[in-house]
User: Fold these one by one.
Assistant:
Number 1:
Amino acid sequence: MKMDHLEIKEKLEAIKQDLLNKMENPDLSSEEKANLQLSLMNYEYIIELADMNHFERGTRLP
């Protein structure tokens, strides 16, 4: 099943939003917050890569 760019981006953004919502929990430990922050950074990067791939803005190898 092939997904288009918007479907992929929507799914990634939904996961990112879920992580942001989890960050709002005042009962999280420092370690849990750090892990969530790393996951957020990873998803932001994945979204950026998906955009680059969709708009063909990456370095192409010969």
Number 2:
Amino acid sequence: MRIHLLEPFFGGSHREWALGYQRHSRHEVELHTLPGSYWKWRMWGGAVALARKYREVLALPDLWLATDMLDLATFLGLLHDVPGAAAVPVVAWFHENQLTYPWSPTDADVGAGRDMQYAFINFTTALAAGRIVFNSAFHRDSFLHALPRMLRRFPDRRQRDLVPALWDKAHVLPVGLELKALDAWSDTPRSEGPPIVLWNHRWEFDKGPEPFFRALMVLAGEGVPFRLVVLGESFARSPAIFAEAGERLADRILHWGFVPDKAEYYRWLWRADILPVTSI
């Protein structure tokens, strides 16, 4: 089977998942992607850019596998007059969703009440797909349970009666992890000294950096010994807590910043004693 995987945000965990699926699927998987930046614009404009490829260059696949970052209803609508497009089965993969995903209170869309537009794109994507696949049962349940509450916010014709049909076509497929790849670095020497705390998340609000670093500052103030490694991608508008933590915990920091080399990243994982998960 020829599968075209459509990912408008080809970066970070989205990229790793897509490449992993391509490597391990028994089918012929082609990746059709856009750069992993400007995620809001990707949700709006990605459908137009990817649909245009099919109108101009690409042949139709046996199946489309679209991620939640694609406005699937718009994508399919733009191909309505392409011969055979309506017959191609479509699966929507929900890596995450914008309905239950935590938004930063400082985001301009939250302040203006525009944050629900991205959740509504997820809703119409789910409606347009033949099947919906979530990476966990928790993700499936939290999204589908939250949909009726979101739809109640609209003035009329809220379409809440469509939600039960989404449950019927929703499935769970856990993310594959290539953990054996880490074994090659299992002989990484462990240094003597206080325990190493390693934080390896994106430098953004939803990963919970504020309470994490505040807790470390309390421990440092009490004289609790530890060393700190901070990895993960940073962006132009990272939360202010990073600058504060980098200054106040400077004497405990072994490494600060993104590590693009996987070998170095794996070595840090093996050296660390504590890897907290702080996501909201």
